Amino acid sequence: MSPKKDSYDCVVLGAGPAGCAAAALVAKEGFSTLLVEREQLPREHVGESLMPESYWTFEKLGVLPKLEASRYAKKVGVQFVDASGRESKPFFFRSHFDHPSSETWHVERADFDQMLFDNATEKGAECVQRTRVLEVLFDGDRATGVRLKAADGERTVSSRVVVDATGQSSLIANRLGLKQMNPDLKKAGIWRHYRGGERDESGGGVKTIISHTRDQKCWFWYIPQFNDIVSVGCVGDSDYLLKGRGTPAEVFDQELSNCPGVTEYLTGAEAMDDLAVAKEFSYTTKQAAGPGWTLVGDAWGFIDPVYSSGVYFAMKSADMASECVVDALRADDCSAERLGAWAPTFAEGTKWVRKLVNAFYSGSFRVGKFVQEHPQHAGPLTDLLVGKMFSPEMPALFADLDPWLERAKAMDAMDDDEPVAAMA
Protein backbone atom coordinates (compact mmCIF):
# COMPACT_ATOMS: atom_id res chain seq x y z
CA MET A 1 0.00 0.00 0.00
CA SER A 2 1.38 3.41 -0.96
CA PRO A 3 1.47 6.29 1.55
CA LYS A 4 -1.50 8.64 1.59
CA LYS A 5 0.60 11.81 1.34
CA ASP A 6 3.66 13.12 -0.48
CA SER A 7 5.27 14.80 2.51
CA TYR A 8 5.75 13.99 6.22
CA ASP A 9 7.58 15.43 9.17
CA CYS A 10 9.20 12.07 9.83
CA VAL A 11 9.59 8.86 7.84
CA VAL A 12 10.67 5.74 9.73
CA LEU A 13 12.11 2.85 7.74
CA GLY A 14 11.58 -0.63 9.16
CA ALA A 15 8.87 -1.92 11.52
CA GLY A 16 10.92 -3.90 13.98
CA PRO A 17 10.90 -2.89 17.66
CA ALA A 18 13.10 0.17 17.03
CA GLY A 19 11.10 1.48 14.08
CA CYS A 20 7.72 0.91 15.71
CA ALA A 21 8.86 2.60 18.91
CA ALA A 22 10.32 5.61 17.08
CA ALA A 23 7.23 6.06 14.90
CA ALA A 24 4.86 5.84 17.87
CA LEU A 25 6.84 8.27 20.03
CA VAL A 26 7.20 10.89 17.30
CA ALA A 27 3.60 10.57 16.10
CA LYS A 28 2.10 10.92 19.56
CA GLU A 29 3.75 14.36 19.81
CA GLY A 30 1.63 15.50 16.89
CA PHE A 31 4.09 15.22 14.00
CA SER A 32 3.04 13.55 10.75
CA THR A 33 4.86 10.23 10.71
CA LEU A 34 5.09 7.46 8.13
CA LEU A 35 6.28 3.97 9.12
CA VAL A 36 7.39 1.83 6.17
CA GLU A 37 7.76 -1.95 6.34
CA ARG A 38 9.01 -4.12 3.47
CA GLU A 39 7.28 -7.33 4.56
CA GLN A 40 3.78 -8.31 5.60
CA LEU A 41 3.27 -8.57 9.35
CA PRO A 42 3.22 -10.78 11.29
CA ARG A 43 6.55 -12.23 10.12
CA GLU A 44 8.56 -15.09 11.52
CA HIS A 45 11.49 -14.25 13.77
CA VAL A 46 13.50 -16.06 16.44
CA GLY A 47 11.96 -15.85 19.92
CA GLU A 48 13.49 -13.14 22.06
CA SER A 49 14.44 -12.75 25.69
CA LEU A 50 14.00 -9.14 26.80
CA MET A 51 16.05 -7.13 29.28
CA PRO A 52 14.00 -5.89 32.26
CA GLU A 53 14.96 -2.24 31.69
CA SER A 54 12.78 -2.34 28.56
CA TYR A 55 9.94 -1.71 31.02
CA TRP A 56 10.39 2.06 30.95
CA THR A 57 10.14 2.36 27.18
CA PHE A 58 7.13 0.03 27.19
CA GLU A 59 5.55 2.33 29.79
CA LYS A 60 6.25 5.36 27.64
CA LEU A 61 4.72 3.63 24.62
CA GLY A 62 1.63 2.69 26.62
CA VAL A 63 1.90 -1.05 25.90
CA LEU A 64 2.55 -2.35 29.42
CA PRO A 65 -1.11 -3.38 29.97
CA LYS A 66 -0.98 -5.48 26.79
CA LEU A 67 2.27 -7.13 27.82
CA GLU A 68 1.03 -7.83 31.33
CA ALA A 69 -2.12 -9.44 29.93
CA SER A 70 -0.21 -11.39 27.27
CA ARG A 71 0.51 -15.10 27.07
CA TYR A 72 4.28 -14.48 27.02
CA ALA A 73 6.45 -16.39 29.48
CA LYS A 74 7.54 -14.16 32.37
CA LYS A 75 11.34 -13.81 32.61
CA VAL A 76 12.53 -13.54 36.20
CA GLY A 77 16.27 -14.12 35.88
CA VAL A 78 19.27 -15.54 34.08
CA GLN A 79 21.47 -18.53 34.81
CA PHE A 80 24.87 -19.58 33.44
CA VAL A 81 26.06 -23.15 32.91
CA ASP A 82 29.75 -23.98 32.53
CA ALA A 83 31.41 -26.41 30.13
CA SER A 84 30.94 -29.36 32.50
CA GLY A 85 27.21 -28.69 32.96
CA ARG A 86 27.59 -27.07 36.38
CA GLU A 87 24.96 -24.39 36.95
CA SER A 88 25.65 -21.02 38.54
CA LYS A 89 23.39 -19.62 41.20
CA PRO A 90 20.51 -17.96 39.30
CA PHE A 91 20.41 -14.18 39.07
CA PHE A 92 16.83 -13.42 40.12
CA PHE A 93 16.31 -9.80 39.17
CA ARG A 94 13.53 -9.01 41.63
CA SER A 95 15.65 -10.06 44.61
CA HIS A 96 18.02 -7.24 43.63
CA PHE A 97 15.33 -4.59 43.05
CA ASP A 98 11.76 -5.34 44.11
CA HIS A 99 9.81 -3.48 41.43
CA PRO A 100 7.69 -4.60 38.45
CA SER A 101 10.47 -3.34 36.16
CA SER A 102 12.73 -6.12 37.46
CA GLU A 103 10.81 -8.79 35.57
CA THR A 104 10.14 -8.97 31.87
CA TRP A 105 9.11 -11.45 29.17
CA HIS A 106 10.30 -14.00 26.65
CA VAL A 107 8.36 -12.91 23.59
CA GLU A 108 7.31 -14.41 20.29
CA ARG A 109 8.62 -11.80 17.87
CA ALA A 110 5.96 -12.27 15.20
CA ASP A 111 3.23 -11.45 17.72
CA PHE A 112 5.34 -8.89 19.63
CA ASP A 113 6.27 -6.90 16.50
CA GLN A 114 2.63 -6.87 15.38
CA MET A 115 1.61 -5.44 18.75
CA LEU A 116 4.19 -2.64 18.44
CA PHE A 117 3.15 -1.95 14.83
CA ASP A 118 -0.50 -1.66 15.86
CA ASN A 119 0.51 0.62 18.72
CA ALA A 120 2.31 2.96 16.30
CA THR A 121 -0.93 3.18 14.33
CA GLU A 122 -2.89 3.89 17.51
CA LYS A 123 -0.46 6.69 18.38
CA GLY A 124 -1.13 8.40 15.05
CA ALA A 125 1.55 7.12 12.68
CA GLU A 126 0.57 6.09 9.17
CA CYS A 127 1.88 2.55 8.84
CA VAL A 128 2.32 0.80 5.48
CA GLN A 129 3.45 -2.76 4.77
CA ARG A 130 4.73 -4.60 1.69
CA THR A 131 6.47 -1.40 0.65
CA ARG A 132 10.14 -1.44 -0.34
CA VAL A 133 12.53 1.43 0.21
CA LEU A 134 14.26 1.81 -3.15
CA GLU A 135 16.39 4.74 -2.07
CA VAL A 136 16.92 7.28 0.68
CA LEU A 137 17.02 10.64 -1.09
CA PHE A 138 19.71 13.21 -0.32
CA ASP A 139 20.35 16.80 -1.26
CA GLY A 140 24.08 16.97 -0.68
CA ASP A 141 24.57 15.40 2.74
CA ARG A 142 21.02 16.13 3.91
CA ALA A 143 18.36 13.39 3.79
CA THR A 144 15.21 14.76 2.17
CA GLY A 145 12.93 11.74 1.77
CA VAL A 146 12.60 8.29 0.28
CA ARG A 147 11.66 6.58 -2.95
CA LEU A 148 9.27 3.71 -2.32
CA LYS A 149 7.78 0.82 -4.28
CA ALA A 150 4.47 -0.81 -3.36
CA ALA A 151 2.12 -3.10 -5.26
CA ASP A 152 0.46 -0.07 -6.87
CA GLY A 153 3.70 1.48 -8.12
CA GLU A 154 6.59 3.73 -7.13
CA ARG A 155 6.21 6.84 -5.02
CA THR A 156 8.57 9.59 -3.83
CA VAL A 157 7.91 10.95 -0.36
CA SER A 158 9.65 13.95 1.16
CA SER A 159 10.43 14.20 4.85
CA ARG A 160 12.07 16.59 7.28
CA VAL A 161 13.66 13.63 9.10
CA VAL A 162 14.37 10.07 8.01
CA VAL A 163 14.81 7.51 10.81
CA ASP A 164 16.66 4.40 9.61
CA ALA A 165 15.46 1.37 11.57
CA THR A 166 16.18 -1.17 8.81
CA GLY A 167 18.15 -3.50 11.07
CA GLN A 168 21.23 -5.16 9.67
CA SER A 169 20.31 -3.88 6.20
CA SER A 170 21.43 -0.48 7.55
CA LEU A 171 20.38 1.41 4.41
CA ILE A 172 21.89 4.78 5.29
CA ALA A 173 24.99 3.41 7.03
CA ASN A 174 25.80 1.17 4.05
CA ARG A 175 25.20 3.97 1.54
CA LEU A 176 27.47 6.36 3.42
CA GLY A 177 30.11 3.76 4.32
CA LEU A 178 29.56 4.11 8.07
CA LYS A 179 29.35 0.45 9.06
CA GLN A 180 32.29 -1.09 10.93
CA MET A 181 32.41 -4.82 11.65
CA ASN A 182 33.92 -5.84 14.99
CA PRO A 183 36.94 -8.08 14.13
CA ASP A 184 36.96 -9.55 17.64
CA LEU A 185 33.33 -10.71 17.47
CA LYS A 186 32.97 -12.34 14.05
CA LYS A 187 30.34 -14.73 15.30
CA ALA A 188 27.55 -16.78 13.75
CA GLY A 189 24.35 -18.14 15.19
CA ILE A 190 22.26 -21.20 14.33
CA TRP A 191 18.92 -21.62 16.06
CA ARG A 192 15.61 -23.40 16.07
CA HIS A 193 12.59 -23.94 18.30
CA TYR A 194 11.61 -27.05 20.26
CA ARG A 195 8.33 -28.20 21.71
CA GLY A 196 8.28 -29.90 25.11
CA GLY A 197 11.62 -28.77 26.58
CA GLU A 198 12.08 -28.54 30.34
CA ARG A 199 10.73 -25.41 32.05
CA ASP A 200 12.12 -24.47 35.46
CA GLU A 201 9.69 -21.98 37.03
CA SER A 202 11.09 -22.22 40.56
CA GLY A 203 11.59 -18.45 40.76
CA GLY A 204 8.03 -17.57 39.79
CA GLY A 205 8.76 -17.56 36.08
CA VAL A 206 11.31 -18.79 33.56
CA LYS A 207 14.99 -17.89 33.18
CA THR A 208 17.25 -17.35 30.22
CA ILE A 209 19.93 -20.04 30.37
CA ILE A 210 23.38 -19.48 28.85
CA SER A 211 25.41 -22.68 28.54
CA HIS A 212 28.89 -23.43 27.19
CA THR A 213 29.79 -26.47 25.12
CA ARG A 214 32.39 -28.85 26.60
CA ASP A 215 35.26 -27.44 24.51
CA GLN A 216 33.99 -23.85 24.97
CA LYS A 217 34.12 -23.16 21.25
CA CYS A 218 30.40 -22.32 21.32
CA TRP A 219 27.62 -21.41 23.70
CA PHE A 220 23.87 -22.02 23.62
CA TRP A 221 20.90 -19.94 24.66
CA TYR A 222 17.83 -21.67 26.06
CA ILE A 223 14.76 -19.43 26.20
CA PRO A 224 11.43 -20.95 27.32
CA GLN A 225 8.45 -19.26 25.68
CA PHE A 226 4.69 -19.69 25.88
CA ASN A 227 2.77 -22.68 24.50
CA ASP A 228 5.48 -25.17 25.56
CA ILE A 229 7.94 -23.74 23.01
CA VAL A 230 11.65 -23.17 23.68
CA SER A 231 14.05 -21.11 21.55
CA VAL A 232 17.48 -22.78 21.39
CA GLY A 233 20.44 -21.17 19.65
CA CYS A 234 24.14 -21.89 19.17
CA VAL A 235 26.72 -19.10 18.80
CA GLY A 236 30.40 -19.46 17.92
CA ASP A 237 33.11 -18.09 15.64
CA SER A 238 31.70 -17.75 12.13
CA ASP A 239 34.48 -19.74 10.44
CA TYR A 240 34.19 -22.55 12.99
CA LEU A 241 30.43 -22.91 12.69
CA LEU A 242 29.83 -22.37 9.00
CA LYS A 243 32.86 -23.52 7.01
CA GLY A 244 33.55 -27.13 6.06
CA ARG A 245 31.68 -28.96 8.81
CA GLY A 246 28.48 -29.91 7.03
CA THR A 247 25.06 -28.30 6.81
CA PRO A 248 23.95 -25.84 9.51
CA ALA A 249 21.55 -28.48 10.83
CA GLU A 250 24.38 -31.02 11.12
CA VAL A 251 26.65 -28.51 12.85
CA PHE A 252 23.87 -27.50 15.24
CA ASP A 253 23.28 -31.13 16.23
CA GLN A 254 27.03 -31.72 16.69
CA GLU A 255 27.36 -28.75 19.00
CA LEU A 256 24.18 -29.60 20.88
CA SER A 257 25.52 -33.08 21.65
CA ASN A 258 28.58 -31.33 23.08
CA CYS A 259 26.54 -29.12 25.44
CA PRO A 260 25.40 -31.03 28.56
CA GLY A 261 23.81 -27.91 30.01
CA VAL A 262 21.18 -27.92 27.23
CA THR A 263 20.82 -31.53 26.08
CA GLU A 264 19.31 -32.63 29.37
CA TYR A 265 16.72 -29.84 29.16
CA LEU A 266 15.68 -31.14 25.73
CA THR A 267 15.20 -34.78 26.70
CA GLY A 268 12.03 -35.90 24.94
CA ALA A 269 11.55 -32.51 23.22
CA GLU A 270 10.53 -32.25 19.56
CA ALA A 271 12.65 -30.14 17.20
CA MET A 272 10.63 -27.86 14.96
CA ASP A 273 11.36 -27.38 11.27
CA ASP A 274 12.48 -23.75 11.45
CA LEU A 275 16.31 -23.80 11.55
CA ALA A 276 17.81 -20.38 10.80
CA VAL A 277 21.32 -18.91 10.49
CA ALA A 278 22.87 -15.47 10.95
CA LYS A 279 26.55 -14.58 10.73
CA GLU A 280 29.03 -11.82 11.56
CA PHE A 281 26.43 -9.75 13.37
CA SER A 282 28.62 -7.58 15.62
CA TYR A 283 29.22 -4.10 14.24
CA THR A 284 29.04 -0.40 14.96
CA THR A 285 28.62 2.75 12.88
CA LYS A 286 30.93 5.75 12.70
CA GLN A 287 28.11 8.21 13.36
CA ALA A 288 24.53 7.91 14.50
CA ALA A 289 23.02 10.93 12.74
CA GLY A 290 23.49 13.48 10.01
CA PRO A 291 21.50 16.36 8.55
CA GLY A 292 17.91 15.14 8.27
CA TRP A 293 18.61 11.53 9.35
CA THR A 294 19.34 9.33 12.34
CA LEU A 295 19.96 5.62 12.91
CA VAL A 296 18.28 3.50 15.58
CA GLY A 297 18.35 -0.14 16.65
CA ASP A 298 20.44 -2.57 14.63
CA ALA A 299 20.87 0.07 11.91
CA TRP A 300 23.02 1.87 14.51
CA GLY A 301 24.85 -1.27 15.65
CA PHE A 302 24.63 -4.67 17.29
CA ILE A 303 26.91 -6.28 19.86
CA ASP A 304 26.06 -9.92 20.56
CA PRO A 305 23.06 -12.01 21.66
CA VAL A 306 24.69 -13.39 24.83
CA TYR A 307 23.01 -11.01 27.31
CA SER A 308 19.72 -10.59 25.40
CA SER A 309 20.38 -6.90 24.86
CA GLY A 310 19.20 -6.64 21.23
CA VAL A 311 15.56 -5.62 21.64
CA TYR A 312 16.34 -3.42 24.64
CA PHE A 313 19.07 -1.58 22.74
CA ALA A 314 16.74 -1.22 19.76
CA MET A 315 13.91 0.26 21.79
CA LYS A 316 16.07 2.38 24.09
CA SER A 317 17.94 3.91 21.15
CA ALA A 318 14.59 4.64 19.46
CA ASP A 319 13.27 6.15 22.69
CA MET A 320 16.27 8.46 23.07
CA ALA A 321 16.52 9.30 19.36
CA SER A 322 12.81 10.10 19.11
CA GLU A 323 13.20 12.76 21.80
CA CYS A 324 15.87 14.38 19.64
CA VAL A 325 13.70 14.09 16.53
CA VAL A 326 10.81 15.80 18.31
CA ASP A 327 13.14 18.50 19.63
CA ALA A 328 14.60 19.06 16.13
CA LEU A 329 11.18 19.25 14.46
CA ARG A 330 9.89 21.71 17.05
CA ALA A 331 12.96 23.90 16.62
CA ASP A 332 12.95 23.49 12.83
CA ASP A 333 16.61 22.53 13.15
CA CYS A 334 17.20 19.03 11.79
CA SER A 335 20.96 19.26 11.98
CA ALA A 336 23.26 16.36 12.73
CA GLU A 337 24.09 17.88 16.10
CA ARG A 338 20.47 18.14 17.16
CA LEU A 339 19.33 14.76 15.79
CA GLY A 340 22.37 12.95 17.14
CA ALA A 341 22.47 14.49 20.61
CA TRP A 342 21.27 11.17 22.11
CA ALA A 343 24.12 9.07 20.71
CA PRO A 344 27.09 9.86 23.00
CA THR A 345 25.13 8.95 26.14
CA PHE A 346 23.79 5.79 24.52
CA ALA A 347 27.23 4.75 23.25
CA GLU A 348 28.74 5.28 26.70
CA GLY A 349 26.11 2.99 28.24
CA THR A 350 26.42 0.25 25.63
CA LYS A 351 30.19 0.31 26.10
CA TRP A 352 29.79 -1.48 29.43
CA VAL A 353 27.67 -4.25 27.91
CA ARG A 354 30.27 -4.61 25.15
CA LYS A 355 32.98 -5.00 27.78
CA LEU A 356 30.90 -7.64 29.59
CA VAL A 357 30.48 -9.51 26.28
CA ASN A 358 34.25 -9.43 25.78
CA ALA A 359 34.68 -10.77 29.32
CA PHE A 360 32.31 -13.64 28.50
CA TYR A 361 34.31 -14.59 25.40
CA SER A 362 37.65 -14.31 27.22
CA GLY A 363 37.09 -17.80 28.65
CA SER A 364 38.25 -16.67 32.07
CA PHE A 365 35.20 -14.91 33.49
CA ARG A 366 33.85 -16.77 36.52
CA VAL A 367 31.02 -14.74 37.96
CA GLY A 368 30.94 -16.60 41.26
CA LYS A 369 34.64 -16.16 41.94
CA PHE A 370 34.64 -12.52 40.91
CA VAL A 371 31.67 -11.66 43.14
CA GLN A 372 33.19 -13.64 46.01
CA GLU A 373 36.36 -11.55 45.78
CA HIS A 374 34.49 -8.30 45.09
CA PRO A 375 31.09 -8.58 46.82
CA GLN A 376 30.52 -4.85 46.41
CA HIS A 377 30.02 -5.47 42.68
CA ALA A 378 27.26 -8.08 42.95
CA GLY A 379 24.61 -5.36 42.64
CA PRO A 380 26.20 -3.46 39.73
CA LEU A 381 26.80 -6.71 37.85
CA THR A 382 23.13 -7.61 38.22
CA ASP A 383 22.27 -4.06 37.15
CA LEU A 384 24.12 -4.67 33.89
CA LEU A 385 22.33 -7.98 33.29
CA VAL A 386 19.04 -6.14 33.89
CA GLY A 387 20.05 -3.42 31.41
CA LYS A 388 20.91 -0.55 33.75
CA MET A 389 23.86 0.37 31.60
CA PHE A 390 23.75 4.04 32.55
CA SER A 391 24.41 3.32 36.24
CA PRO A 392 27.18 5.50 37.71
CA GLU A 393 28.62 2.35 39.31
CA MET A 394 29.77 0.84 36.00
CA PRO A 395 33.24 2.47 35.89
CA ALA A 396 34.10 1.16 39.36
CA LEU A 397 32.89 -2.34 38.41
CA PHE A 398 35.20 -2.55 35.41
CA ALA A 399 38.08 -0.88 37.23
CA ASP A 400 38.18 -4.09 39.25
CA LEU A 401 36.93 -6.57 36.64
CA ASP A 402 39.48 -5.73 33.92
CA PRO A 403 42.60 -6.49 36.02
CA TRP A 404 40.82 -9.47 37.60
CA LEU A 405 40.34 -10.96 34.12
CA GLU A 406 44.01 -10.44 33.28
CA ARG A 407 45.03 -12.32 36.42
CA ALA A 408 42.52 -15.09 35.66
CA LYS A 409 43.93 -15.48 32.14
CA ALA A 410 47.45 -15.74 33.52
CA MET A 411 46.39 -18.39 36.02
CA ASP A 412 44.60 -20.39 33.34
CA ALA A 413 47.72 -20.31 31.17
CA MET A 414 49.83 -21.63 34.08
CA ASP A 415 47.46 -24.46 34.96
CA ASP A 416 46.30 -26.37 31.90
CA ASP A 417 44.81 -29.10 34.10
CA GLU A 418 42.15 -26.82 35.61
CA PRO A 419 39.05 -26.60 33.39
CA VAL A 420 37.88 -23.11 32.55
CA ALA A 421 34.37 -22.64 33.94
CA ALA A 422 33.31 -19.47 32.26
CA MET A 423 30.47 -17.63 34.02
CA ALA A 424 30.18 -20.33 36.72
TrEMBL record:
One molecular function GO term is: oxidoreductase activity
Q: Where is the FAD-binding domain?
A: 9-181
Q: Can you tell me which residues the record assigns to a coiled coil?
A: none
- What's the superkingdom here? Bacteria
EC assignment: the record states: 1.-.-.-
Provide the alphabetized UniProt keywords.
Oxidoreductase
Q: Which Pfam families match?
A: FAD_binding_3
> What protein does this entry describe?
Putative FAD-dependent oxidoreductase LodB
Source organism of the structure:
Botrimarina colliarenosi
Annotated gene: lodB
